[in-house]
Model the fold of this input.
Amino acid sequence: MKTYFLTFLWVLLLGILAISETQATHLRAGEITTRRISSTSLTYEVTMTTYHDEIGGRTASDQQDPSYFCFGIGQAVAVKRASRIVINRATTANTYVATYTYPGPGIYRITCTITNRNENVRNIPTSIQTSFQLQTTIVVNAALGLNSTPVLLNPPLDSARVGQKWCHNPAAFDADGDSLAYRLYVPSGKIADEQGNCTLRSVAGYSDPTLIGVNRINEAGTGPATLTVNAITGDVCWDAPAEIGQYNIAFIVEEWRDGVKIGEIIRDMQIIVTASPNKRPAIVVPADICVEAGTLIQQTITATDPDGNRVELSGYGGPFNVGPDGRPYLAPDGQTRINIIAPAFATFSPTTAQNTPASGTFRWQTNCAHVRAEPYDVIFRVVDLPRGSGQTQLATLESFRIKIYAPKPQGLTARPAADAAGRAIILNWAAYACGVSSLPSGTQMVIYRKEGCENVALDPCINPGLAPSTGYVEVGKVPISQTTYTDNNNNQGLKRGVQYSYRIVVMLPSPTYGQSVVSDQVCVNLPQQVPLITHVTVDSTFDTRGVITVRWTRPPGINPNDGTGPFQYRLFRADGLTGTNFTQIAAISTTLQPTVADTVYTDRGINTVANAYRYRIEFYFTDPGSGQLQRLDVTDNASSVRLTATPGVRRVQLNWQANVPWSNDNKQHRVYRSKTGPNGPFNLVAVVPVTTANTYAYLDQGADTFAGDGVQPVTMSVDSSYCYRVETVGQYAAPLTTILLNNFSQGICASPIDTTRPCPPRLAVDTLNCSTLTPEAFCNQTTFANTLTWQNPTTGDCDRNIVKYRIYYSPCEGQDLVLIDSVSAPQLTYRHQNLTSFAGCYEVRAVSRSGRESAASNRVCKDNCPYLMMPNVFTPNGDGKNDVFQPAQCPRFVESAELTVVNRWGVKVYQSNDLSLRWNGKNNQGKDVPGGVYLYQVTVKYKRLNCAAPAEIVKGWVELLRESGAN
Done:
């Protein structure tokens, strides 16, 4: 996006604007920036930069020393001027620098008030009497580290021309890499304000500059004039001024980290509008780029002027290490003015006048210290030098964004751990090219793993990192200095028979969050020395005599003739898909000869109706020395397939799942249906393509789409029961076991439902009449109850077979109601007990025999009856009677309260937020106050149905009576 602005010939404007030297001040623009300078205390350096008119307001500019800072706590502090740098013949940049240590964390607003703005500001009434106020808000928190606010590198000295779009970009740069956002703001100031005032006020009568003038249209003539700011780029544009004069606007630069705003800066600036026949120059910059750290960036910027005038090119932005006053951030003595990137700064040349067409070269030798998630913004500017006197210089700006990522980690290798039974993989890689010293503390190497070895193409500019869609998951992090990592799946062990791929990536810590290119992948699988379970299939579905068949492979890495036999398989079973209560159910001795059927077991007498089951196998060899069996390893756990059937309106929804070490994804599963029972006979009715575990589902509406065993469609009837089982198809990822694995679920039956559901009940709640309550009502009562009653509609197309009612409740109106209880039909009442107050809203819903729930009943709500009465006299004489000023009767439903007592002169003598609202006649230092009349105020928040209701104020007087001579 291009932006445009005009550089004004300041001397010629003096006659047009007629600024008075006697009253006019000198402030054109300014902002306040901060940086934390101590890692052990909350000490900040605060810098105000202001831009002064040195022709129309030179005398006032001389006198602007000191200025007064308000640090958001305490009184204003005088701060001497630190520097006064000439920007051009008419303007200086002035800095005021102070150091302040905050007492603790919090949000602080740093303010500076300078009396009197310039005279004749068109959109500020009586501007000569209105103060110029700046404010910056910071979050003080040790966890943010040595954070600095962004700095605004483009001086706010822009001028505009009538009828032409004007734009300004502050070239904001955050050295910490925080995200920035922009928004417009009404300038601050007050008539007859004094320096040292710490309260920010919007300028009274301020006008949007687009509302001033007659022909208030944009430059293109297509609509009204506008003043906008781009929230992302920071381009502030006025399209277009209608009349000459000087105008003030303001905008805010917000600083964000991890989705939390941690500061904001106000820039207040002045725009001088005049008329000029000169045509603005054009500038061409390269497309945005994304490069690896260490790349030499060398780009050409070109410019032309339609009038043939000579032009000057220049650049702004963080990579140049140059502030708006032309000075570097990194001084020759090594003392930094802000937290800044490593000293490898960009250059741009030439910046002297050239004939049109002109060109300049941007050059930046990047390094690893420049890596960050946010791109760098560089703004290039061309200004023309018109021939002849009395013409206004015109300028054009355009931005160029640079994203810098860290180099790719190299030399990644993977191998199984020496202890094969540990099921671990050891990763190694080369020392990182950037070196530890060039990266911020806390930089880490992050390790990612996925099952399978399919390569994923990654672009560090378009797709940085490893998104979940790639299949990779983070498995570990190590310091950047480390070059090895052992992956044992958090001590759970990796899977046998699965091929894994690994990648690593360098991640920089908060706030930069930069990262490297992802490494090349490396693939590895654990040696296969134990069996692999291949089948856990349900043969029959019964509650006491169900049957599951378990099958497994022989261990391919074991030679049966190596002298370590005989061998043994020990089979264990646990209840449920994720059960851990494993018990041994079989021990099968073997010599691993292929002619023996020793890799199958039929598990009988189990409840396959109610349960899924999970199995594992431990493999034992014979120790040649002792002759004893020793466990070599254990298989991964594998469960049976568990099917659920949910009735719908003339349909049944099927879902299934299995917890197995192989993958059932990207296969075609088979759905079988029967009208006989859960054990069939079954007819194959559908072959379901499955991509992920989230798609293990089928909706049966009666169709039969498989013709191989005969087409048997059905009309789904609410009077019929339909039974199902599912056959899953899976496969291990490793080449050793590429066979397809077919396993059946248990059988399950369900009946569809019809389209009718219950009608919503009509609900009522017992009432509470506040006008009839006595002051003693509910005195000292701590629990309350509401009684609900409802009726079912007698007409309408409803399901009358109601089995229960569900009660929904919320203690506050306007909130979502939640289910709190249910009652069985035909009960039509409910008492909600043990409440802390009556306040709340209710709904009731009926549930039919088929499990369908009605729409909600009418919502009924009940509120409390708050009460608070204070007496007018008390006698704290210790006689046990009326010694304390407190509520006359029991206060009702008080949630919080604060009592403040002042004497007749308005001096506060007592304050307490005790719920009892008791005052014993002593001040907060424990001393008796004299007798007399006192005024009190109770700020009380009641427990109400409207939980967001504000606190109420109760005011009155009380007479304190003491015996003569009491102190």
In short: The chain has a mean pLDDT of 88. The longest strand covers residues 260-274. Residues 803 and 849 are 6 Å apart (CA to CA).
